[in-house]
Amino acid sequence: MKIVLASNNQGKLAELKVLFAPLGFDLVPQGSLFQGEAEEPYNTFVENALAKARFAAEKTGLPAIADDAGLCVQAFGGLPGVQTAYYSTQFGYPKSDAHNVQALLEQMEHLDNRNAYMVSTLVGVRAPQDPEPLIAVGKVHVHIAKQPQGSHGFGFDPVLIVPELGQTFAQLPEETKNQYSHRGRSSREMARLLQQYW
């Protein structure tokens, strides 16, 4: 079965292709099929992921899976949440992973509570109007490091310490990261749902 991955984020695409490889589905990035991205006007991960999946399914006529993920910092009341990718822009920085990390460290400089969690919500639809989308959520508790550590991964990985490992996601080999990460957890659950219902 061919499934569209409703994302143009290269980091996400690389991770999801590895995580879904055992299923034997032919995963195709939406950028190889059409230009543009869905609007993401909602305040929850699930609503935005659903909008992206429906958009990709409508554009291609194929089943689609979308991921909406983000960082939820306890000291910030769960923010930046769905605005994670644009976090740095509210502080005058251009949008980029490096600027996001810099802005986060600046905002947390004097905070003792460094607890946070990463969320990945995957939504799968068989068609644009699928009345029963598959929804898989993965969460992982992390501590925000005081400075970047490691060179792997993307996004906030260099400052996300996995407490039980004592290392950031950027310090971990890909296989270990996928075992512990929010996207690894949501992908395993989505794989189970795909096998059961599709």
TrEMBL record:
The active site is at D68. HAMAP family: Non_canon_purine_NTPase. Substrate binds at S7, N8, N9, Q10, G11, K12, A69, F154, G155, F156, D157, K177, H182, R183. It comes from Lampropedia puyangensis. Its cofactor is Mg(2+). The lineage of its organism: Bacteria, Pseudomonadati, Pseudomonadota, Betaproteobacteria, Burkholderiales. GO terms for molecular function: dITP diphosphatase activity; ITP diphosphatase activity; metal ion binding; nucleotide binding; ribonucleoside triphosphate phosphatase activity; XTP diphosphatase activity. It catalyses: ITP + H2O = IMP + diphosphate + H(+); dITP + H2O = dIMP + diphosphate + H(+); XTP + H2O = XMP + diphosphate + H(+). This is dITP/XTP pyrophosphatase. Pyrophosphatase that catalyzes the hydrolysis of nucleoside triphosphates to their monophosphate derivatives, with a high preference for the non-canonical purine nucleotides XTP (xanthosine triphosphate), dITP (deoxyinosine triphosphate) and ITP. Seems to function as a house-cleaning enzyme that removes non-canonical purine nucleotides from the nucleotide pool, thus preventing their incorporation into DNA/RNA and avoiding chromosomal lesions. Belongs to the HAM1 NTPase family. Signal peptide: none annotated. Homodimer. NCBIfam families: RdgB/HAM1 family non-canonical purine NTP pyrophosphatase. The keyword Cytoplasm does not apply. Mg(2+) binds at E39, D68. Binds 1 Mg(2+) ion per subunit.
